[in-house]
Amino acid sequence: MNTWITLIILGLVALGILFIYLRFKSDPTPKIEYLYTEALNAMVRSDRNHALKLLRDVVKQDSDHITAYLQMGNILRDEHPEQAIKIHQSLTVRPNLDKPLRIEIHQALAMDYNELGFFARAKKEGEQILQLDKKNKWASQFLLEMAEKDRDWKTATQWTKVIQKQSQEKNPLKVAQYKVYEGLEKIESGDTQGAKSLFLKAIKDAPKFGLPHYYLGNVFSDTRDLVKAIESWEKFAHLNPDDSVKVFSKIESALFDLGRYSEVEKFYRRILDENPDNIEAVAKLANVLEEKGEHQSAISLIDQSLDASNPSIHGLLMKLKLSLHGATPVELAYQIDHIIEQVTDQ
């Protein structure tokens, strides 16, 4: 009796072992998924060659492993974009793909074409994604980048508004920038009025954006409306203090042409009231004072602007220039030595 029970138990164990063996022999999935996971890990480590080898092993065992093909193409894109396109294009004809996977394939193709400089085809792939998912943020951002490359500022503006609506974030500065770029192209084509209109729209959209004021001032200057040109340039100088030097000579020339050179000093003092550390404005004002015969006032202005611990080379040179007619050779030599020290330390 015990012998029969033992035989039955041994038989059941053998059947169980056989079942497990047959199950894993016929189902290679665990091995495939392990290889795929290892390939992804290799990609994270930037070990592209090893990742590619593992992915090729995956698709040899399972030709329906779409994501493995996708990753193969993505790896090849940088050095062999043509091969990447062939792989990704072959996936577009696969049947029964779900929408997220189809979106991934078109996204990969968009990047492939972009890598090769085939921007029209890249754009079509982005549009394909939006046909599948009209709120796809990646596609909207990609098409914005395509519009920027094409210098299609109207389309760039449209995509910017779409993206901002998607993210529920309003940034008028971005839209204003595109209006400025469009305005500059109008100037190149000789459409001064069109450019002026776009700069004014940019100012309306983003009042604190300085760049349209600068270019609007240039338009007014070209049409000899110097009063408005000065107003626009001064607004630019106040909004962009770090770049204000770009308009200093323009404003001086315009005031001189208008016979209002006496207002140059007032302009620089307004700039320094807002930004006392603007060394370019200090130097310009010192020149004005020197021309008026106020030599000591000019020197004092420079001295007040110099930081004892880290003096500006520009300021030191300006002081040297102003000192040429009044200082002794010894004093001038001392100033030159000081400048040399500062240059050497930098």
Quick structural summary:
This protein has 346 residues and is an all-alpha fold. The protein has helices at 2-26, 29-44, 48-61, 66-76, 81-91, 99-116, 119-132, 137-149, 153-167, 172-188, 192-205, 211-222, 226-239, 245-257, 264-274, 279-291, 295-305, 313-323, 329-345. It is elongated.
Could you characterize the architecture of this molecule?
- This protein is mainly alpha-helical.
- Among the domains are: 53-91 and 102-140, Alpha Horseshoe (Serine Threonine Protein Phosphatase 5, Tetratricopeptide repeat); 184-275, Alpha Horseshoe (Serine Threonine Protein Phosphatase 5, Tetratricopeptide repeat), CATH 1.25.40.10; 282-346.
- It is 78% helix and 0% strand.
- The radius of gyration is 35 Å and the shape is elongated.
- The mean pLDDT is 84.
CATH homologous superfamily grouping of the domain at 184-275: Tetratricopeptide repeat domain
Total helical elements: 19
So what's the overall shape?
elongated
Instruction: Report the portion of residues in β strands.
Output: under 5%
Please give the number of β-strands. Answer: 0
From the N-terminal CA to the C-terminal CA, the straight-line distance is: 100 Å
What is the radius of gyration?
A: 35 Å
The major sheet is characterized as: none
CATH topology of the domain at 184-275: Serine Threonine Protein Phosphatase 5, Tetratricopeptide repeat
The level-1 CATH class of the domain at 184-275: Mainly Alpha
The CATH level-2 architecture of the domain at 184-275 is identified as Alpha Horseshoe
Ranges where pLDDT stays below 50 over 5 or more residues in a row are: none
Which class do the helix and strand fractions yield?
mainly alpha
Helix content: over 70%
